Amino acid sequence: MLQALGRRFAATGVPGSRTFMASAAHEYQSRLTQHYHNTLRDDIMILQYTPPAMRARQEEMNAERAKASKEASTDWEPNPNRQHKSKHVRPKVPVCSPQNTPFVKKVTVHIRCREALQNKNHLLSALMALQVITGHRAQLIRARSDVATWKLRKGMPMAAKVELEGDDMFEFLDKLIEVVLPRMKEYSGLRMSSGDGNGNFTLGFDTSVIGLFPEMEMVYDMFPLITGFSVNINTTAVRNRDGRLLLSGLGLPFTHARKPLTDELALD
């Protein structure tokens, strides 16, 4: 009788049978991922909102400036025998919406090892250090051309990198912002003038910082060579201002350039 009841429950899919499933399993999301989707994205969209009238006025002013610069350049004739470089055209700032809110697209952790020019085995320390702090196998970077002054030949291994995306990227940023940066003695943050103009930022660290990662504390003495590293943060923002707004919301500090005090202010 008990066996018949068991077969009946298994066929109907009631709780207690192996075929019962309350809901689909949710995918894991890091803390920064949840913070971005639940809070930060809406805040950035509100801060970037521009009224339609003001946006139309800005477009008219930009059109007038472009027309004036074009008229001023008509008097100048380029030399046909000289090759002129074309100016980089920045993308147009899109209208703020939930679909085009700035987002961190990729983070690249890079280590360039000068000692690898004399002995390529020194690059093993950089490869293992990247694997320890990121949890991913590092990619080897080889030289693309010959440089006689550095005794560098094409194809020689000289650096290593790891590209992070998704939750692994946010976990690394969370660890860098919440654990590593506060443990640095003299670090006030990125400068407001930093950035490549398109919303991408690069952070450079010396040899003493890589030992501040929790994964490196136990195995730090096992590395024969410790080198500095750089972190390149690639975002979908089209301006540095939007990228700074995104990174500051994630917890990365930014600092203004302080002007030196004059004699009068110093006496006061």
Give the secondary structure arrangement, pairings included.
Blueprint: H1 2-12, H2 31-47, H3 52-72, E1 104-112, H4 123-134, E2 139-142, E3 157-164, H5 167-183, E4 190-191, E5 201-205, H6 214-217, E6 229-235, H7 240-250, E7 254-255, H8 263-267
Parallel strand pairs: 4-7
Antiparallel strand pairs: 1-3, 1-6, 2-3, 5-6
Helix pairs in contact: 2-7
Describe this structure in words.
With 268 residues, this protein is of the alpha+beta class. The chain is 37% helix and 14% strand. It contains eight helices and seven strands; from the N terminus they run H-H-H-E-H-E-E-H-E-E-H-E-H-E-H. The strands form two sheets. A five-stranded antiparallel β-sheet has the order 2-3-1-6-5. A two-stranded parallel sheet has the order 4-7. About 7% of the residues have low confidence.
* Mass-distribution shape: globular
Strand content: 5-15%
Unreliable stretches (pLDDT < 50, length at least 5) are 8-25
Widest sheet: strand ordering: 2-3-1-6-5
Percent range of helical residues: 25-40%
Q: Would you count the extended β strands for me?
A: 7
Class based on secondary structure composition and strand pairing: alpha+beta
Task: Round the Cα radius of gyration to an integer and report it.
Answer: 27 Å
SSE order in H/E notation? Answer: HHHEHEEHEEHEHEH
Task: Tell me the span between the first and last alpha carbons.
Answer: 94 Å
How many helices? The count is: 8
Main beta sheet: 5 strands, antiparallel
Mean pLDDT: 79
